[in-house]
Design a protein that fits this description.
Number of domains of chain B: 2
Oligomer: heterodimer
Distance between the termini of chain A: 70 Å
Structural class of chain A: alpha+beta
Shape of chain A: rod-shaped
CATH architecture of the largest domain in chain A: 2-Layer Sandwich
Helix content of chain A: 25-40%
CATH topology of the largest domain in chain A: Alpha-Beta Plaits
Radius of gyration of chain A: 31 Å
Shape of chain B: globular
Radius of gyration of chain B: 22 Å
Number of helices of chain B: 14
Order of helices and strands of chain A: HEHEEHEEHH
Number of helices of chain A: 5
Largest interface: A-B, 16 and 16 residues
């Protein structure tokens, strides 16, 4: 190594250090360079297409189970029974948000567009069970029992009408039967938005 | 100085005249030591806070801002945390050396405060071999660091300790060589004498920094070498988080770790204080003659000026730390032996020749004499 290289090395060390220190000084002095967001006090606005927690609007949900089938990590579970009006009644709809990988396939596939991503992303818990989102707060067994009772009542009524009207009218009577059964039906049909009685009671649907 | 303080104390309080003088001198010594220790600890605590703030600013972050106004009490929270932490000694460690090491490191850095000239009369002990003593006592840090590395019985700690030994021993040579010009100019090893030799000329142009081109260079050589001696980035290979976890103190926790931590910041202060005293005019107040002022004002002003200069150098160290990446081991050794040692030698020769040729006159003084 010649003297020229030696001196050049020293010069380079000094020059590059000075250059670096000028840059850090600029960052250090300029308050606008601070980009930290004081998180709990202020938050970023999530983007419009942000995939946060899933939310299912169970009033429009048709229990088609498409979301359950498409989910790659099997985090959605759904139970439903056929109601007195031949439409499916949701008994339970749970999403294990701790398992969900936010791929968005279930939202894409949902026919009535009842399943949606929200902008929520804050959920810390000490228990994994708390990470399961329940969209129907009533006990699934109770709903099933009630729907079964309604179905039985409707069938009994239809049977009675059939007996009154006689053989020829039986088909028409059967068609009339479900609507006439409605007033007696409590909240359980809520999963069916077309039903007038649905508004009587809204099952819990608060998202957390 | 302690005895004169003790005598003036006895004169001021007649009740004490019956007590033997040595007890009072001892008492005064303990009190002065307590004051200096308190200062050292408060400074170290605040320095950790400033370091984190500087790091935050440079990295476009905020830094600590939760404890107290703008996070200023963060160091108290950290200190309490360290005090309350479990003190772990590894099962296969050499217990005696493991316990001894942090004290050696801390003593090495704290004992150096004894000769730091804080002001006109503010020096714990104005030893006539001040610089010599300082170089010697800070070498104790190497022993502590090596003991820590060895006694931890951990490969990372051992590697860190060996690296630290190689580094600190190597860099002590350029540090000493770079300080010699100031000694040559003052003709004394006492730090107060060195500071006094830089008086006059508005309290700025008397500085050794401006004495001649060689002393100007000498300051920067000293600063770089001293940076390496304190194991600070970019010369922090003994700690090297990304290679050695944290080097020689990897097995230490709680209060023992705090000792290493405080020693590092204490070292930073001592090194900066030495640079201030030897090159930046020490406690000389610009445009005023601190020694001619009334004792109280002279001491207060000179203390303020000295601390201002020293702490600026400490902040400069932090700035460098958050700018430059770490050197490799071989690069570090190359820098010491191939660049700093020859340069400081040449520098020392240059200063000696200058003093011989110009009869100890510096450039500013020559210019001043030209204009009368």
């Amino acid at each position: 190594m010649g003297l020229k290289d030696y001196l050049y090395d020293i010069w380079e060390a000094v020059a590059t250090t000075a250059k670096g220190m000028r840059i850090t000084a600029r960052y250090g002095v300029d308050p606008r360079e601070t980009i930290t967001l004081q998180y709990p006090e202020e938050r970023w606005e999530p983007s419009e297409r942000f995939r946060g927690f899933l939310y299912n609007d169970i009033k429009t949900c048709t229990s088609c189970t498409m979301c359950v089938r498409v989910c790659p990590v099997d985090c959605i579970s759904l139970e439903s029974v056929r109601g007195a009006d031949k439409k499916m009644v949701l008994a339970s709809y749970d999403i294990d948000i701790g398992r969900c990988m936010y791929c968005g396939l279930c939202v894409e596939v949902c026919p009535p567009k009842s399943l949606k991503h929200t902008s929520g992303y804050e959920k810390a818990s000490v228990d994994r069970g708390e990470l399961i989102l329940h969209f129907i707060h009533e006990d699934a067994g109770e709903i099933k029992a009630r729907v079964a009772k309604q179905v039985a009542e409707a069938a009994a009524k239809a049977e009675a009408e059939k007996a009154e009207d006689g053989e020829p009218d039986s088909r028409a009577a059967q068609k009339d039967a479900p609507p006439s059964a409605q007033p007696a039906a409590p909240a359980d049909a809520a999963g069916n938005p077309e039903d007038g009685g649905a508004a009587e009671k809204k099952p819990g649907e608060e998202k957390e | 100085m302690m005895e004169s303080l003790a005598i003036s104390l006895v004169n001021a309080v007649p009740v004490l005249s019956g007590v033997p003088l040595w007890t009072i001198t001892l008492l005064v010594m303990v009190m002065v030591a307590a004051v200096v220790l308190t200062f050292a600890l408060t400074y170290s605590g605040l320095a950790t806070y400033v370091e984190r703030k500087v790091a935050g600013d440079i990295q476009a972050r905020v830094g600590p801002n939760r404890v107290g106004p703008v996070g200023i009490l963060q160091f108290l929270a950290d200190g309490i945390k360290l005090l309350l932490k479990e003190d772990i000694i590894p099962a296969k460690a050499d217990r005696f050396l493991f316990v001894l090491a942090p004290y050696l490191v801390f003593i090495g850095s704290f004992a150096a405060f004894v000769v730091v000239p804080f002001g006109v009369g503010l020096i714990a002990s104005d030893l006539n071999i001040g610089i010599y003593y300082l170089m010697a006592i800070t070498s104790l840090v190497v022993v502590g660091v090596m003991l820590a590395g060895w006694s931890s019985n951990n490969k990372w700690a051992l590697l860190g300790g060996m690296r630290a030994a190689a580094q600190i021993v190597s860099y002590e040579i350029p540090v000493g060589m770079a300080l010699l010009p100031a000694v040559l100019i003052a003709g004394s090893l006492s730090l107060q004498d060195i500071v006094r030799s830089q008086g006059g000329l508005f309290g700025i142009f008397g500085w050794n920094l401006f004495h001649n081109p060689f002393t100007f260079l000498s300051f920067f050589l000293y600063y770089v070498a001293a940076l390496a001696e304190t194991n600070r980035t970019p010369f922090d290979i003994p700690e090297a988080e990304s290679e050695l976890v944290s080097g020689y103190h990897v097995e230490y926790s709680g209060i023992r770790f705090a000792f290493f931590f405080l020693a590092e910041y204490g070292d930073m202060f001592v090194v900066s204080a030495l640079a201030t005293a030897c090159f930046l005019g020490g406690w000389h107040v610009p445009f005023l003659d601190a020694e001619a002022l009334p004792a109280l004002w002279g001491n207060l002003l000179s203390l303020g000026v000295f601390l201002g200069k020293t702490l600026s150098l400490v902040v400069l160290m932090m700035w460098i730390r958050w700018t430059l990446p770490r050197l490799r081991v071989d690069q570090l050794m190359r820098m010491a032996w191939k660049y700093l040692v020859p340069l400081t030698f040449v520098n020392l020769l240059g200063v000696s020749l200058w003093l011989l040729l110009f009869h100890g006159e510096g450039i500013p003084r020559m210019i001043a004499s030209l204009f009368g």
